[in-house]
Amino acid sequence: MADAPVLSVQNLKTSFLVDGAWKSVVRDVSFDVMPGETVAIVGESGSGKSVTSLSIMRLLHADSSRIDGKVLLNGRDLLSLTEKEMRGVRGNEVSMIFQEPMTSLNPIFTIGRQISEVLTRHKGMSKQEARAETTRLLEKVRIPNGKARFDDYPHQFSGGMRQRVMIAMALASRPKLLIADEPTTALDVTIQGQILDLIKVLQEEEGMSVLFITHDMGVVAEIADRTIVMYRGEQVEAGATEDIFLRGRHPYTRALLSAVPKLGSMANRRWPTRFPIVDATTGEAVEPEEVADTVGKGKTPILSVKNLTTRFAVRSGLFARQTGSVHAVENLSFDLFQGETLSLVGESGCGKSTTGRSIMRLVEPTDGEIYLDGYNVLQLDQIGMRNMRKSVQMIFQDPFSSLNPRMTAGASIAEPFIKHKLGTTREAREKAADLLERVGLSASMMNRYPHEFSGGQRQRIAIARALSLDPKVIVADESVSALDVSVKAQVCNLLLDLQQSLNLAFLFISHDMAVVERMSHRVAVMYLGEIVEIGPRAAVFENPQHDYTKKLIAAVPVPDPARRGIRRGLADDELKSPVRPFGYEVPSRRYREVSAGHLVQVA
Amino acid sequence: MPVYIGKRLLVAIPTLIIISIFVFSLQKLLPGDPVLAMAGEERDPATLEFLREKYRLNDPVIMQYFYWLGGVVTGDFGISLRTNQPVLELIGDKLPVTIQLAVMAMIFALVIGIPMGILAAVWKNSWIDYLANLVALSGLSVPNFWLGIMLILLVSVNLGWLPASGYESIFVDPVRSIQTMIMPAFVLGTALAAQLMRHTRSSMLGILSADYIRTARAKGLSPWEVIMSHTFRNALLPIVTMIALLFGELLAGAVLTEQIFTIPGFGKLIVDAVFTRDYAVVQGVVLCTAVGFILMNLIADVLYVLLNPRLRATL
Amino acid sequence: MTVVETINAAPARQKSRAWRKMRANRGALVGLGIILFFAILAAAAPLLPIPDPAATDWSALRKAPSAAHWLGTDDLGRDILSRMIWGAQASLMAGVFSVAIAVFIGVPFGLVAGYFGGWVDQVISRVTEALLAMPFLITAIALAAFLGPSLTNAMIAIGLSAMPIFVRLTRGQVLAVKTEDYVEGARSVGLGHVDIMLRYILPNVFAPIIVQATLTIATAIIAEASLSFLGLGQQPPAPSWGSMLNVAKNFLSQAPWMAMWPGVAIFLVVIGFNLLGDGLRDALDPREA
Amino acid sequence: AELRIGLQDDADVLDPAQSRTFVGRIVYTAMCDKLVDISQEMKIVPQLATEWNWSQDGKELTMTLREGVKFHDDTPFNAEAVVATIERNMTLPESRRKSELSSVEKVEATGEHEVKFTLKSPDVTLLAQLSDRAGMIVSPKAAEELGANFGSHPVCAGPFKFVERIQQDRIVLEKFQDYWNADQVFLDKVTYLPIPDTTVRLANLRSGDLDIAERISASDAAAVKADSSLTYADVIGPGYMAMYVNVGNGARAENPLGQDKRLRQAFSLAIDREAINQIVFEGTAKGGNQPFPPTSPWFNQNLPVPARDIAKAKELMKEAGHETLDVELQHANNTTQTQMMQVIQSMVAEAGFNVSLRATEFATLLSEQTAGNYQLSRSDWSGRIDPDGNIHQFITCEGGINDVKYCNPEVDQLLNDARASTDDAVRKEKYDAASVILADDMPIIYLGHQPYAYAIDNGVTDFAPSPDGMIRLVGVKNAD
Ligand SMILES: Nc1ncnc2c1ncn2[C@@H]1O[C@H](COP(=O)(O)OP(=O)(O)OP(=O)(O)O)[C@@H](O)[C@H]1O
Ligand SMILES: Nc1ncnc2c1ncn2[C@@H]1O[C@H](COP(=O)(O)OP(=O)(O)OP(=O)(O)O)[C@@H](O)[C@H]1O
Ligand SMILES: [Mg+2]
Ligand SMILES: [Mg+2]
Question: What are the tens digits of pLDDT across the range B262-311?
Fold first, then answer.
């Protein structure tokens, strides 16, 4: 490529003021991004990927951070621009997708307004034009019924929908350079594919360059021209994606690639299987053994959900009259046995998180019954609820907003343990330290506050917190999505170990089909609030019946650089929305039993 | 929401009754005999007794209360012991004055306090911040009488720009009415401005470090947009509550200001009424201010919910 | 450092972190300095070589500041410096304790009202409204008559009348914070209401409360004067800044220094508490460097 | 020309029969003529009555009325109107004038312009009462129509007639063209503005918003004198400042101070009245030891205002068996009072009195004082023209305002006799005798006499302060 690079980062070094001392978290990072090129940054969770991208945009808190080195955008050094000049760069020449979509959206402005703001600001559009364009953008990022949801607020959107809002926002101004920090972690593979296609189209049409941060090696393989590997704050390797994939030299690179779970690798196994543990210094992997059967079939299910329905009112007009409802969860039934992992997969926005939250009674279900350990959860009183919550825990999809910003990580983890009187304060702190180590963090991080962690680190804190109570059931909502493969393997193995030793049951919500395949005993596929297919893992993966299940499995990206540039053909299928008008009659559903325990919705 | 507002207005009735019982019983506990207080130097026992009878002060307290309540229900708030005027008429006279003063003072407070708070937050720990804080806090610590008298001496006596005191109804002579109210409103507004400034600053600071402000900056919005629409709108929540509460403080602070600038408003009315134990007036005024508070708080609560989409479902 | 050491060092470090931030905060230090200065002065008043604050001198009425009387004399020829120092005690107490009363009663009620909502909120909010509507004057006169003239009673009266503001302010903030995900998170790990309120909500609503508390100190100091005027609070000839201001009002043009010094002192104390409050606010906010 | 007068308070009901306030009387002075008036020398002089005569037994007073006088509503002034007004004052249930007229048996018209008062017992003080609100004759027509509501639109026969009143804001009067002495009225309009704060009142005067400010504070006197565009005027009023000692009003009288006159004398001797005058009143007041100011003809010259004598005070204390004595002193909570009480507190401390001050607001003070719930109570009397008004009701056993509950038949006798005599010399003798007894028993410790001080814009001429504190506007001119 003869062109000058769009972005050239030279010797970037970023430090934070921690406890009164400067601590560097990114050191000596240098790379170029050419016009129209896609560069991926991969690396360990907490290795400085997000900080690098924020440094480029100069978006770090000015008082507590320091950036050295050079960031050249089309030859101009961004680090020496005035704040005013920087404004013309941000959102216009370079736009950015942040890792955590919930806290990155302003809670009191409508989704539509936050997107169209970019258009009125940088593209000089009028309000109406911007509105129309925003609706188009929402459709493009596959948010159904974009026109109607223009006036919704972020908290009314599911995790993946918020992420897509961020994407729409970043793409709105058709920037020269897009920095995308894990933009698809919360998306199911079908939508992820469509979003990747959308990016590729824009790249072709506008010559946009992309700096793409991700943990999903399949995605890297699919879109990245070149790949940079980061490890412990340093750039350890960079090169063409094929080279990295096939001839990665650094042990961490090799470790990373050999740990990538592949769909279909479970073909002949009956039980969930531990991930191979890869030594990051040598890159050697140890092939894991299958775990023993833990499922307490035959006994009464530990969690039993019957005809669960949760709807949200849709209001409009001056007096906020209810005009319809979001049928987030509709007539859902399933059982979960001790020691079992039931995975919940499905399209983004199909009601997975709402299911979890309904079980926890964090939202009040509209209808249905939930039995936990024999107790009817929906009829528990205050004290009953508290005890119930000792035995069922939820790991939230958005770890950042679910951690108290004024509580250190250690306190957050230790607190439930202390409050449920499971031990002394000292024991609690020891347990917290132990759990931190087990999820791959260090005990010395106990005194840090949530905002001082990376996205993946926060996610692990949330996991540690849920584990601190030794619950019987864990609802894990996208709990490993922000982890790099090696850490993901470690955490998944931890969960499996706990299932072994404590007979834990998991309701495992995830978009990562490879992980789902590896972790689960049974799989339930959700679509528009309903379960469309449920059955033993092998049955669902090897013999998918429902159209949506088939589509989902087909869409899983494969970490093979040879597949680069594939195109799914932009989705022309109609977007379905769970928003129903007032008085909508829910059709009754019928299921067909394909094989033992394998049910599929037929009508 | 209309249901919510309606419900709130309904609970206002018991609230008002509780308040009136409260005031009534406290009055009975106060030392000092209304008739004696009113008589001043003319203390003819027969007249005093006549007045006690006339105003039913010899009846049992409970009876007095129900008698009063019965009157209120029919729109009769009794008559002032001191001036023989119907209380409702007195309130009708003073209320517009007080409202005008309060509104003008609030305008001053908002116009001074909020921008200062925003500037101070945005330029935290710079000289702008320090200056804004100094100005605001001196506005809070400088006693109203001092500021009032200094203003009168400077603006009226030395410069002759504004009338030193007095009042003109806004319906009779709007220009003069505004002129006479400028200084008192300013004096009254300074302390409020200080409080608004401090709250705005603190609230803004909390929001400025939020992630979504980073998003707004990443969009390349101008500082003005980031600050005004993204930060300030979010920061407004505690300020809205504060503004409603400050109206209460306005009434309390108005006493001294009204005294200095000789404005015939509520503050002076109630103080005189309390000091002369003119209980019918006290009750009437308290009830009237209570209605004011209830309305202000209701408005604040509704605004609060409207400003916070997550709470909207609760209405 | 081993794991165990880290664990044991942790709680101390957590506290010291806020503390270190306070110490690094110049504004907070200045504020603390001002407050300590006045507090020490107030406490040391009996030991200082200053004239009796009640000693009148008919030959030195309303004298401007001079070598003999550094801050001048008042309308009874008393040394203003000495009265300022002795008055600091009553004024600081009036400021601090009445705000403490208001905060310690108002904040819990606001917390409970906002957190539980429903009829609890209704009851607390309506009573608050009733209290707000109650004229301060009546409460004060009644208290003065029944409890007698003491500074303590004045502080109670001021505290009670400042309390509703804290209830409302806290309640409002709680309403907003309780919709945050981390509160839901706390519920989902089975924490009780008290823990959620104290550890999840309170710390996140504290900023406006600190601001309001530091502001109320000023009003409380000034209010003490009007109460002593009604026979509640510091009685003459014992000084307080507020009552000094009150007297000075009659001599604004003849003896401006009489109003100036107490005014300046109140201003400084208010600045002090506000700076300290800002420091505290920043120190407690982990996001602030 | 217009005249704007700054008053210290707002007036109450503008009905002479019901009104109570001092400022109300100031307004009436311009609006309502009385049967008789007070001269600068505090002598009773004709106003609506041109002549009067006492019968020999002092039980009948006949008055000849001025002719050609009209009320503001054009009703003619005559004997009928006088009778109607006096009867109204005596019978209207709300009337506050009943005690002032309590000695009147009946009043009748003995001619078109002659009325006769018949008394129950001799009472020379009646004339003085008729020089004030009790003697303000109102239009019978208006009184008939408005009844107890007369105050909403008062109609009298004074030089100015009522135009409008806004509570706590202003009272506006305009010249009455048919006033009997209209030639001497040079003002077209008078506006009274209640401005409670003295500093602000003065500022208004300086800024030209006022022409006369009444009762300016002593501390401002010097500044007014120094201002070349203003004139200062003051006059000692007929009232007094005093401390009431609870000598017999309930249980709280049972204390050394209430029981032992030597302690009271010591207390009084420890006070330096002239110093108080200088410190608190900048020399504008007068020290005093009797219910009448030293400038009054009724003052007993044989009992001069005592100088401070700490040695004697201590001696008296010792005699009474006290080294020190704790005393609680209640006083009204205005700043001047508080200042004055602190001065006294520090003065008497030298004699061994530990005075603790208790500031209360006025309504409480009043009821505590009536109820006897005090040891030492400080309050003022605004003063009456006739000496009787300053002493009789305070000190006689059955006196209406005898809050100290002093009772001495000898004093009662003297004061009752003084009331009955029409001969000033006889009266003076009685008052002198009484004052000697009181100065010894000392149930009331008199402190001094306050002035009425005015600041006047130089444009205003021919204004002279009256000793009763009223603002008489006949003859006053205003150039701007
Ligand atoms: N404000 C901060 N103060 C101190 N340390 C910080 C701060 N923000 C991030 N860090 C630390 O910097 C390191 C890099 O963080 P960064 O967010 O860049 O990680 P990342 O590579 O994006 O990881 P992930 O994949 O988990 O998102 C982490 O170890 C984190 O703990
Ligand atoms: N509080 C709410 N008010 C209104 N609608 C809501 C609310 N919460 C969720 N929804 C809607 O309910 C639907 C399901 O949301 P949910 O969060 O359960 O999806 P999800 O399956 O977890 O999706 P993702 O994979 O993207 O996280 C979405 O359409 C969402 O917009
Ligand atoms: Mg990251
Ligand atoms: Mg979700």
Answer: 888 888 888 888 888 888 888 888 888 888 888 888 888 888 888 888 87
What Rg, from alpha-carbon coordinates, does chain A have?
24
Q: Where are the domains of chain A?
A: 303-404+464-602, 407-448
CA B163 vs CA A374, B100, D1, D88, D200: distances in Å: 80, 17, 20, 42, 12
Residue at A223: amino acid letter: I
Residue range B30-37: average pLDDT? 81
Q: Are residues B276 and B242 in the same domain?
A: yes
Residue of B290 and C145 predicted with greater confidence: B290
Q: Are A186 and A219 in contact (CB under 8 A)?
A: no
What domain range is B218 assigned to? 87-312
Does the CB of C146 have a partner CB in chain B at under 8 Å? yes
**Residue D10 CB contacts under 8 Å (≥ 6 apart), including other chains:** D23, D167, D168, D194
Read off the tokens for C189.
């790990």
List the one residue out of D19, D93, D363, D401 whose CA is nearest residue B53. Answer: D93
Quote the CA–CA distance of D108 and D62 in Å, as a whole number. Answer: 10
Residues from chain C that touch B205, judged by Cβ atoms under 8 A, are: 207, 281, 288
ipTM over 0.95: no
Tell me which residue has tokens 């056993």.
D397
Chain D residues with CB-CB distance to B93 below 8 A = 166-167
Question: Does one domain contain both B278 and B229?
Answer: yes
- Specify which residues A335 forms β-bridges with: A304
Q: How far apart are the first and last CA of chain B?
A: 5
Verify that B206 and B57 share a domain, yes or no.
no
| pLDDT tens per residue across span C56-112 | 777 877 888 887 778 888 877 888 888 888 988 888 988 899 999 999 999 999 999
Shared domain for B69 and B104, answered yes or no, is no
| Tokens coding D302 | 């044989």
Task: Kindly state the tokens that stand for A441.
Answer: 């963090």
Domain-terminating residue out of B73, B103, B133: B73
Which chain B residue has its CA at the smallest distance from A119's CA?
A: B219
pLDDT given for residue D364 in this prediction: 84
Q: What distance in Å separates the CA atoms of residue A529 and residue A347, rounded to the nearest whole number?
A: 10
Closest ligand by atom to A143 CA = 2
Position B78 in a domain: no
Question: Which CATH number is A303-404+464-602's, of 3.40.50.300, 1.20.200.10, 3.60.130.10, 3.30.1360.140?
Answer: 3.40.50.300
Quote the tokens at residue A319. Answer: 């007096």
Is B310–A155 a contact, with Cβ atoms under 8 angstroms apart? Answer: yes
Q: Where are the domains of chain C?
A: 77-284
Q: Does domain C77-284 have CATH number 3.30.1950.10?
A: no
Of the pLDDT bands very low, low, confident and very high (cuts 50, 70, 90), residue A289 is: low
Query: Cβ(A157) to ligand 2 under 6 A?
Result: yes
- Share of chain C residues as helix, strand and coil, in percent rounded to the nearest 5: 80, 0, 20
Q: Is the minimum CB–CB distance between A147 and chain C shorter than 8 Å?
A: no
CB atoms within 10 A of CB C3: 16
- Those chains having 3 or more beta-carbon pairs within 8 angstroms of chain D are B, C
Residue with tokens 């309506």: C126
Q: What is the mean pLDDT of residues C162-173?
A: 90
Coil vs helix vs strand at A534: strand
* Structural domains of chain B, count: 2
B102/B251 same-domain check: yes
CB-CB neighbors (< 8 A) of D18 in chain B: 84
> With 0-12 CB in 10 A as exposed, 13-18 as middle and 19+ as buried, what is A101?
buried
Q: What percent of chain D has pLDDT over 70?
A: 100
In tens, the pLDDT along A314-337 reads 876 656 677 788 888 988 999 998
DSSP states along A342-409: EEEEE-TTSSHHHHHHHHTTSS--SEEEEEETTEEGGG--HHHHHHHHHHEEEE-S-TTTTS-TTS-H
